[in-house]
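Before relying on records like the one below, remember that each one covers exactly one chain. Contacts with other chains, cofactors or solvent are not represented anywhere in the record.
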Amino acid sequence: MNVYMKVMKTHWQKILSPLCAAIVLVCLWPTSTQVVTFDMARVKSLLIRQLAEHTVSNAQAVLASKVFKRHLNDVLAGYAHKHHVLIVDKALVLQGAKDITAEVMPRLSQSMRGKS
């Protein structure tokens, strides 16, 4: 019985800890913050297509991916800060959130070209 109780305690801790954290975040999150989506799959497929069109080596593709990821994170963080939103991958949301992909793509392109 003692081993069973330890297993159950560990199991419930794994479930309740993230649940409690989510409840706290929801309760403390500013009410003016909205959830928006960004289509990460679409953007990654565009990057892959562009890399394929330019016949790059593996090393160049890895470097381009790292640079792209850095610029994408910077652009999304700036957008989230400026608009007071929480950005979630579109694949994780069923419905009801505004998609900002089309709005962010020109900013990402400018950032990649160094025209901030």
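The longest helix spans residues 2-28.
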